[in-house]
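Milestone M4 deliverable, item 7.
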Amino acid sequence: MAKKVLGRGLGAYFPNLDEQETPEPKPAEGAGAEGSSNQAGSIRERVNITLNIPVESIRMNPHQPRTDFDSFRLQELSDSIAQHGLIQPITVRHLGRERYELISGERRLRATRMAGLPDIPAFVREANDEQMIVFALIENIQREELNPIELALGYQRLIDECSLTQEEVAQRVGRNRTTVTNTMRLLRLPAPIQQGLKTGKISAGHARTLINVEDPQKQEDLYNKTIENELSVRQLEELVRLIGKPSKNKSKQPVPQPDLEYREITNRLRRMLATKVDIRKKARGGEIKIEYYSDEELERLLHLFEGLHQSS
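Output delivered:
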């Protein structure tokens, strides 16, 4: 169940708006008589219509995954809206008493406010808290406007606030589960590297390469070296590979390579568990290392093992 996010009264979000004097939203151009008649009805009737709504009656989406807006591009959009008007309506949900909450279109709403326009065309639809997060994510995914960290945080919010699994998140946003898992792994990187990824100092390919380095300090050292020397992803991968090699001074004995039988067993386990598995042979017996990337992933593995135990 989605967590409650409207804990404060609506007045807290609209302190300067008098409920008795709020102007009635006007039907947007092209909304027709049906939109005009619906706007006088109940909250349920005031959905699936397009209205011209006062911009001061709309609060921002608290679930908006996007946090960075290019000020130059925002000003360009504002100038265009001032001259030609807004072509594509934003999307909102009705909170009651002429109060609305943005679902998608924050950049358009910001630009309209900058242009000094009093009203904005908005499509009104029903949405619960989970849908608010999903809709905002999907719009930004379709427009390719989220950086990888914002996207990962959006997935994490769906898991934390809506009690979804990674599989369910993937279904909601139309992505492969592996893609969702790999994106969320970026949140394991140190904060400076996450910030560098958000600001475009490194690419997602660089970040995914750095995830494979276990030591956070080494990750940051490699991150700084990547920026200073403008390393490509391939060059960084080679650097990580070289760092991972054992030093000749530390070990005189060559690292034993697993035989074909152990490789086959490792591959079978990886396919069965759908995650990375390593088998290390010792003088007596050995050990199996199984990786997981989130609490939800660990829960999935536990359920899998329980199922195997019950069927045996």
